[in-house]
Every structure is written in structure tokens, then in C-alpha cells.
Amino acid sequence: MSNDKGLQDAHVKIGAKQTMKLVESGQAAEVYVAEDAEFRLISKIEGLCSKHGVKITYVDTMQHLGKACGIEVGAAMAAIVKP
Asked: pTM of the full predicted structure?
């Protein structure tokens, strides 16, 4: 990921439930999805982002996404909250 530091500095919600809530409520500016997350989660968030016009950026692993968000564990997805 090119902007790892940016995710730590931005207001980010981490995890599938939080990310989906943000997208559904129209509060997500961008969504990051780990390519090794469960397929059902990926397909669900892709559908929601398409419906709500939210950009998706894919990250190679959950471990990398978690690290980019500043946490010690992996994350399936994360969303940047609109300012």
C-alpha cells in the first residue's frame, strides 16, 4: 500500500461490521479490502460500495491492512470516514 501512514492518520473504522455500517449510512469516503478476506465478505462489501458509489482499494493481505491501520492483528476491511 502506498499510503500506509495515511490510514493511521485518517479517521478509520476497522472491521467488516463497522465498514459495512459506514458504507450503508453514506459516511465512507473510501474502503480498503484485504484480498485474502472471506469471499462472502468481499462480495458483500463490493456490492454495497457499488450501490453507494464508494471507491474500493484492495490490499494483498489482512495482515498488511491491519498494520496499515496501526493495529497488531489482521483486518478484513477498513473504511475512511468522510470529514
From this structure: 0.89
